Amino acid sequence: MRSLPFFLTSILTILVSICSLDLATASEVPADPRAGIISAVEWSEDGQFLTYTNMKTRYRFDLTSGEREELGVAEDTPAPPRSRSRRSRGGGGSLTGTYVGRPTRGRQYTQVDSPNDRWEALYENWNVVLKEKETGEKIAVTITGNEDIHYGTASWVYGEELGQNRAMWWTPDSQKLLFYKFDDTGVNPFHLVTGWSKFNTVHYPEYYPKAGAKNPGAELLVYDLATQKITPIDVGGGSEEYIYNIRTSPDGAVMLVNWTDRLQQHLKVMAIDLETGSCRLVIDEQQPTWQTNSPAMRYLADHERFIWTSESSGFSHYQLRHLNGELIHQLSSGEFQATGIDFVDEETSQMGFRGFSSPVNPYYMQYHIVGLDGSNQRRVTTLDFHHSGFQLSPDKKWLVAQYEEVNTPPSTALYSTEGKLIAKLAEGDPAAAANIAEMFSFRSNDDQHDIYGILYKPKDFDPTQQYAIINSLYGGPGSNEISARYAPNPRSENNRGYLVVKVNNRGTGNRGKAFLGAAYLRLGDIDIQDHADAIRMLRKRPYVDGSRVGIVGFSYGGYMSAMGILKHPDVYTAAVNGSGVTDWRHYDTIYTERYMSTPQLNPDGYDIGRATREDYVENFKEAGGHLLIMHGMVDDNVHPSNAFQLIDALDKGEASYESRFFPNNGHGLGRGARKTQWEFFDRVLQPQFRGRRISL
């Protein structure tokens, strides 16, 4: 046979190569990590079918037979319009009036209009004034208010730490006004200065009770419009107790107030008799560490029974209670943390709730159902993965849930609410995993708890290379650093060439009171120990450069960062302390004493948790670490004196450090701090990148 011309042979060779490349490429097309996600879930009215969309295809699932039918290409469903919140009357209307304006952090509303819209209750010049809207007539409810004793407002610390942004409350019938009286006599003010970047500064004092010092005294008073008399409420109060979270039952029939002792180990919910000023007990809870200040109350339709979140078992669980003070019965139970009510159906006498109940991993969320009589509690989501995206059928027989873990793309399951896996509606392909996040665990140094963390890697991670690592943290009591959800994308720090580690230290949330209370009286001790131990474990891996370890945080995280490099200079090379506490005697009573008691009762705990200790400074100096301190000069939350005292201790110890102060910033430092942080880390931990442009 005659041979083909050379040019034709070349063309055929190229075509074969292209086809082979196409076939190879087709066989190596990465799986779509969204393959296990469904959308547009619909339940048929007769309860027979579930319809949903997966990968642009519409499916119908027969709930009786378990058969699935493909319906064709799904039509695009427009996204629901975003609702816009109205900000003009920030507090909105409620049974206790319409709160006008928007208070700043730590402050309270200065105006609340009566429910019948006839009166304005105003906080003016330390006093409470009523103004009739139609006539403009004013009634001076109080006249003795001054800088020390004031009415219709609250202390900054109440606003900051108890979320108390209201200080006046109307009764639903608009006939009485309940309001605060605060006595700051003997409370030492902290003196801030504003206007640092202007020609002249302005003196800014704030009554700020610091740990172990004199506290403001709080009282509740009620003014009767008909009699024009003021009656004190006998709920307690004063400087050694806190009274807060004033609200009504849903029908307005009962007004409630929370009371706790100064150390916040004892909580009482009281019902107020507005005629006599007396109070009766509705709930009484106590803890050996600290009691949550404002557990959720969810009322049933009769507005008298309610579901209460209690920690009395050592885990957050639900009880059914009555406003008359009766504990009707326990609803949920078990050695796991219940974390939110999904539904309450009084017709079927059922409640659905979420909880971290997987025996495989304490951060895998599961779905539960229990009878409102406390019977037949069952875990519905039986697979030991992290579940989310719950969609319950209208008849409460079926549950759709997405399940996943940190390095496993999501899939979607259909469960019966009796706790049986019915079908996997869509499955993610493990081969599609991004492989940029890994959950790990280790035993705490006291051998009492498993500590969990997540290591995040750059997208182009190369295990044959060595990487600097950043321990990014907050770590404060009840916080949460990690999520068991699938991580499809690297963190911003990874994009800069760093490994990143996040750890849920002892004292963080979602694990019950034993894990939470492990940090009691020991802030800055066992919490930072867990982060340092995580680094000690990870630096054994060949791709972790244990000589290039950074730690960074802001607020409580800034404190943890400073304590990390000062207490564990063998672990951390560089630290960024942003707006951090450096001695708990600097911080306010309500937050600090909740977790640390007072300096008088816990002197050793306060000393161990003090970043300014001479031995910490000496160890840091000898290790030759790098510390960047950043703070706002008008920070009324964590005062700049925290930074100044740390700097003073470092100067006295002749230890090196860097600092940056922001003249017009409060507790938040903004983009400038982030830029400074990365310039610092890149210079110290990634010198090969010195001089490159900082990307925010």
Structure description:
The structure is a single chain. With 696 residues, the protein is an alpha+beta fold. Among the domains are: 87-232, no CATH class; 434-689, Rossmann fold (3-Layer(aba) Sandwich), CATH 3.40.50.1820. The chain contains ten helices and 41 strands. The strands form nine sheets. An eight-stranded mixed β-sheet has the order 34-35-37-36-38-39-40-41, with helices on both faces. Strands 5-6-7-8-9-10 form a six-stranded antiparallel β-sheet, with no helix packed on it. Helix 4 (526-538) packs across helix 5. The longest helix has 22 residues, at 6-27. Residues 1-27, 83-90 and 690-696 have low confidence and may be disordered.
- Bin the helical content: 10-25%
Helix run count: 10
**Percent in strands:** 25-35%
Overall shape: it is globular
Number of strands: 41
Please outline the major beta sheet: 8 strands, mixed
Could you tell me the CATH topology label of one domain.
Rossmann fold
Q: Cα distance, first to last residue?
A: 68 Å
Classify the secondary structure makeup into a structural class. alpha+beta
- Going across the major beta sheet, what is the strand order? 34-35-37-36-38-39-40-41
Contiguous runs where pLDDT drops below 50 for at least 5 residues: 1-27, 83-90, 690-696
Text of the CATH class of one domain? Alpha Beta
Q: What's the alpha carbon Rg, rounded to whole Å?
A: 30 Å
**Going by CATH, what is the homologous superfamily of one domain?**
Alpha/Beta hydrolase fold, catalytic domain
- Examine the secondary-structure arrangement and name the CATH architecture of one domain: 3-Layer(aba) Sandwich
The pLDDT mean sits at 92
